Amino acid sequence: MKNKKHITLLLATCMSVAGCSTVRAPSPADPLEGFNRTVFQFNDDLDRYAMKPVAQGYKFVLPTPIRASVTNFFSNLGDVDNLANNLLQANVTAATQDLMRIAINSVFGVGGLFDFATPAGLPKHNQDFGVTLGKWGLPSGPYLVLPLFGPSTVRDTVGTVADLQIDPSGYFKPIWFRNTLYGLRVVNTRANYLGATNLLAQAALDKYSFTRDAYLQRRQYLIKGSSASEQNLPNYDDESGPTSAAPAAPSSASEPASEAAPTGAPAPAGASAPAAEPSGTGNGNNNDNAMPVPNRQMVPNSLRLFR
After folding, report:
1. Could you tell me the residue ranges of all domains in the chain?
2. Mean pLDDT on 143-169
3. Model-level pTM?
4. Cβ-proximal residues to 21 (8 Å cutoff; 6+ apart), any chain
């Protein structure tokens, strides 16, 4: 549950200081902020008027068990990327677990539609080539917001290109079938995160600054582990970006209460209406990476910070 607690702390700390009177300070990690904000707004509008309504209809029409199987199927494909990157990171134990997950879920889970590996004690990992490059010591470079793809960095953009070559769905034939799967993955992922993004939209935050800093902190956590969680988080309000003021301490984490936030995107500790696990995790197991956002797809700005 490490990742879950980390993101809970992140959300809670930012929201607990949302009403503070602060002075805007530019982020040295974001020298392209003007360009990034323009792209961020484009992505946000696209999500609001296109992706979100489609995802809401998808969730309304399809029952939970079917959406769970769709999620499990794409999660099983994602384990191939996890396997490759754990091998590149010389993490033999995790790579072995990834290989066993693929074998068990592909055979006994009917091509990954059912997740038997997680209850068997094989944890779900969350790796990508951007993390691998970070563990190899490559600097992240400036923060970028990519059209359609959302938050990234120069390093993570290179990593995304590499991950596209590993993704098994990119080799499916015929092309119409591959593209159909791609669209299904986008809509299914968006539906799983409806609760998390609704919570973010309702908070009194500068959404751009929050998403940027949460994304960068999340990526640093994936690369450096628990040491990254000890850093101070920036302050926010709905007019200003991050400042140098130290954040207030978050309240203790509360149990999830409402539907639709994914396992990788838990409810904020201090929120009055925290989000719960998404419908569609297959087995109802709450491991810390049970619902990672697939890296190689169009996702709204706020989703990419949970990957």
Report:
1. 28-223
2. 96
3. 0.69
4. 237
